[in-house]
Design brief:
The chain is α+β, with helices and mostly antiparallel strands. Helix content is 35%, strand content 31%. The chain has 13 helices and 23 strands. A seven-stranded mixed β-sheet has the order 3-9-10-16-13-12-11. Bound molecules: adenosine-5'-triphosphate.
């Protein structure tokens, strides 16, 4: 048991150090000693995070006809949070007292104009307060949803476990508006949709568990909640959640819907699938991290699906001091691949072995090398991240070769 714990702790340390070494994630305000609960996203971390968000948006917004996106302001009037009960109830216990975890700020410059505001602790309310705007602008029929991706802030008493519990993080949320009598049907529907997305993005489903949250542990607005938990190295803890928020929020904001089908005014009920971007990122890295032995050395690599990987392929000239190799690699391989796939990088640093190790840790599925044979027969080596095997591919067929693999 003890050994297992050490191994799990080591795994977290390895992930944190890989994320820094390979330019995924840095501690916030690091050169001034760090700032608990904040992280800065480096080039590859940002690329992976953007891919997660884009994949989510594509599935839940772009490929549907019943979903409306919104990007609401982070600063909202304090009345919003008074109405929802957050000012009174959004608290964690601290030495027996309730400590409100909303981050308070003030806006306005002149004394009589200064108002208290809060950095939103969830993205959900940005959607509810725009319910009427959305209905008036798009005239959607029930059921329909609103979706938002954006930052949320909580003054967590004890930020910890890398990205798991931060003070500034990101959420991807849906508020799905339905008729009250349909709630069970749509609750089950969204549960399945969430599971499908997790698998699609590459989260290890053997580590995902459903927890039916008992009444005492549910938020005050929820009549049913399922937490999707994940086996992190530091324990089985929440990844995402699904809640039946009833008509609590729309009623709170005194909002209604004119039901043309049934006639008259009504207040729709809400099913809310919520996804933490940072926890999705962490679960994905933990699911993808692998170690094996190559050429007598232990190597670590991130086995991302190519569609989600921060880099699709890296291009290298075998030797960087041979202008004919560099010229060929740049003009005939790198430039066309870059303009086709975007997520393509040039890597001529160190020897080939070192480049492969680096790209393995970034999770790059294919490394392409231009060598002396290329100059005579117009083929390159394509090395596969997972097997380490190399194949010679015609330069003229490279784009379709990678496209086929991506599909
Ligand atoms: P927890 O019980 O872990 O504090 P929660 O139940 O308060 O989480 P929700 O209010 O349901 O979380 O927030 C929705 C999602 O936002 C969570 O499922 C999680 O993925 C993410 N999330 C919440 N708090 C944090 C945080 N401090 N850091 C990173 N992600 C978070």
């Amino acid at each position: 048991m003890k050994k297992e714990n050490t191994e799990e702790n080591n795994l977290m340390e390895k992930i944190v150090s890989l994320c820094k070494r390979r330019g995924f994630i840095f501690s916030g305000s690091e050169i001034y000693g760090g700032f608990a609960g904040t992280y800065d996203w480096g080039h590859f971390g940002l690329a992976l995070k953007n891919n997660i968000k884009q994949n989510w948006w594509k599935k839940f917004v772009d490929s549907r006809r019943d979903m409306y996106g919104i990007d609401a302001a982070i600063l909202m009037r304090q009345e919003v949070w008074q109405a929802t009960g957050h000012v009174a109830n959004f608290a964690d216990p601290l030495d027996g007292k309730a400590f409100n975890t909303m981050l308070k700020t003030q806006v306005g410059a002149k004394k009589d104009e200064i108002a208290v505001s809060y950095l939103r602790p969830e993205t959900a309310q940005g959607m509810f307060v725009n319910f009427k705007n959305t209905v008036d602008a798009f005239h959607p029929k029930l059921p329909f949803g609103m979706a938002q991706i954006g930052k949320a802030f909580r003054n967590e008493i004890a930020p910890r476990d890398f990205l798991f519990r931060q003070r500034e993080f990101e959420q991807m949320e849906i508020e799905y508006f339905i008729r009250a009598e349909d709630w069970e049907k749509y609750f089950d529907y969204w549960k399945d949709e969430m599971l499908v997305w997790m698998e699609e993005v590459g989260i290890d489903m053997s580590k995902v568990h459903e927890l039916e949250v008992v009444k005492e542990d549910r938020a005050h607005y929820s009549s049913r909640t399922i937490d999707f938990e994940f086996d992190y190295p530091f324990g089985k803890k929440e990844l995402f959640g699904l809640a039946y928020r009833t008509d609590f929020d729309l009623k709170t904001h005194k909002l209604e819907y004119i039901d043309e089908e049934e006639g008259g005014k009504m207040v729709p009920h809400v099913i809310e699938p919520t996804f933490g971007v940072d926890r999705a990122f962490l679960a994905l890295i933990l699911s993808s991290y692998k170690e094996d032995e190559k050429d007598g050395e232990v190597r670590s690599y991130l086995k991302f699906k190519p569609s989600i990987a921060p880099v699709i392929c890296a291009v290298s000239p075998l030797l960087k001091n041979k202008p004919e190799l560099v010229e060929y690699a740049n003009t005939k391989v790198f430039v066309p691949l870059k303009s086709e796939f975007g997520r393509v990088i040039w890597d001529d640093n160190g020897n080939i072995g070192k480049r492969y190790r680096r790209q393995d840790e970034i999770g790059t599925p294919w490394c392409i090398v231009v060598d002396f044979d290329t100059l005579t027969n117009n083929t390159v080596t394509v090395r596969d991240r997972d097997t380490g095997e190399q194949e010679r591919v015609k330069v003229s067929e490279l784009i379709s070769y990678i496209k086929d693999k991506l599909d």
